[in-house]
Write a structure and sequence with these properties.
The protein is an alpha/beta fold. The chain has 12 helices and 14 strands. The strands form 4 sheets. It has a 7-stranded mixed sheet with strand order 1-9-8-5-4-2-3, sandwiched between helices. Strands 12-13-14 form a 3-stranded antiparallel sheet. Bound molecules: pyridoxal-5'-phosphate. The site of pyridoxal-5'-phosphate has 15 residues, from helix 4 and helix 5.
Length: 364
């Protein structure tokens, strides 16, 4: 049996008729950018998360960098960010000329709330929290720190659609929640798409203008903006998927429960969920000291896996200019050498799950 790390086609066929019907509706409407599908999605996604406003954008990276731009964070400012995140989080900071300050993760792979305060300087302007792998971060202490030091709080929710801390959705704790709807995400489009959630009406308006060349009224431009519009076709697809997001997350949770219950191999560490947090299992990430040998073994058994992520941002070529060295962030670096994401996707059959479980349990 051949198993791929992800199967995006399964997520399409699950609701094929609804997707196709909506696609035809949009194609036949004659209106393709910033119309009723985008407005409809923004209202529905805001309602789903519990945020006051949602603004659709072209990608998750755009959501991040435009957020820092509109919060006036740039040259000379520092933003605290977890070190083991996807590099796009860091790019959201540095595109504006601001400096990322890295914090090590806790045992749940999330930003360690106890390691943040020591990194705060008078240049610190914001904290960027990534709810990594679909796991909500414990937000209590982070929200407190932001109040105490008057810092902006931005959440990278590209992997956490629907994950909650203390019953509250990720993306609603701070100033801006940044979402990606890249096809492989829990709420995926059929191309690139993104959005922000915000509670401040003025800020929501600024996002709406910025994504459209800085203009609220056609040909009247208030600021130098960007073209970062969510298109009608993707918005329509997202409205279809959003209706099913809770059941899709539930399905992944079921698979994760099976993995956690049935994976038994002393060489492998399973992920744990932090108290008060829920996880929507964007990835199911195991750890193994002999990760590369395990990956090779699974490949021979035709089970595809992915490393999220093999090179932490501070050691990436793109960030050489920050001057970080190997050894600066030992927890993050050790994770990069030991983490492995095993197959986890909507529409994964019971037989596929059985095969993954049996094969991993037989790894010697
Ligand atoms: C996917 C992802 C992004 C970037 O989203 P795009 O839509 O691909 O630009 C940012 N941060 C994290 C944590 C991601 O997983």
């Amino acid at each position: 049996m051949k198993i791929m790390p992800n199967r995006m086609d399964r997520g399409f066929y699950k609701y094929q008729e609804e997707f196709e019907q909506k696609a035809l509706e949009v194609l036949r409407s004659g209106w393709y950018v910033l119309g009723k599908e985008v407005t409809g999605f923004e209202e529905e996604f805001a309602a789903y998360t519990g945020a006051k406003y949602c603004v659709g954008l072209a990608s998750g990276l755009d959501a991040l960098w435009i957020a820092f731009r509109l919060l006036n964070i740039g040259e000379g400012d520092e933003v605290i960010v977890q070190a083991n995140t996807y590099i796009a989080s860091v790019m959201g900071i540095t595109i504006n000329g601001a400096t990322p300050v890295f914090v090590e993760p806790d045992m749940y792979f999330e930003m360690d709330p106890d390691r943040i305060e020591e990194k705060i300087t008078e240049k610190t302007k914001a904290i960027l929290v990534t709810h990594l792998y679909g796991m909500a971060t414990q937000m209590e202490h982070i929200v407190e720190l932001c109040r105490k030091y008057r810092l902006k709080l931005v959440e990278d929710c590209a992997q956490s659609h629907g994950a909650r801390f203390d019953g509250r959705m990720t993306g609603t704790f701070g100033d801006v929640g940044c979402f990606s709807f890249y096809p492989s995400k829990n709420l995926g489009a059929f191309g690139d798409a993104g959005a922000v959630t915000v509670n401040d009406e003025e800020l929501a308006k600024k996002f709406k203008a910025f994504r459209n060349y800085g203009s609220e009224k056609r040909y009247y431009n208030m600021v130098v903006g960007a073209n970062s519009r969510l298109d009608e076709l993707q918005a329509g697809m997202l409205r279809v998927r959003l209706k099913h997001l809770e059941e899709l997350n539930e399905e992944k949770t079921h698979i994760a429960r099976r993995y956690t219950k049935e994976l038994k191999n002393s060489r492998i560490k399973l992920p744990e969920t932090a108290p008060g947090c829920t996880c929507v299992w964007h990835q199911y990430v195991i750890r193994c000291e002999e990760r590369d040998r395990l990956m090779q073994y699974l490949e021979e058994k035709e089970i595809g896996t992915i490393i999220h992520y093999p090179i932490p941002p501070h050691l990436s070529e793109a960030y050489q200019y920050l001057g970080c060295q190997k050894g600066d962030l030992p927890i993050t670096e050790h994770l990069a050498e030991t983490v492995l994401s095993i197959p986890m996707y909507n529409g994964m059959t019971r037989e596929e799950q059985d095969y993954v479980i049996e094969t991993i349990n037989e790894f010697k």
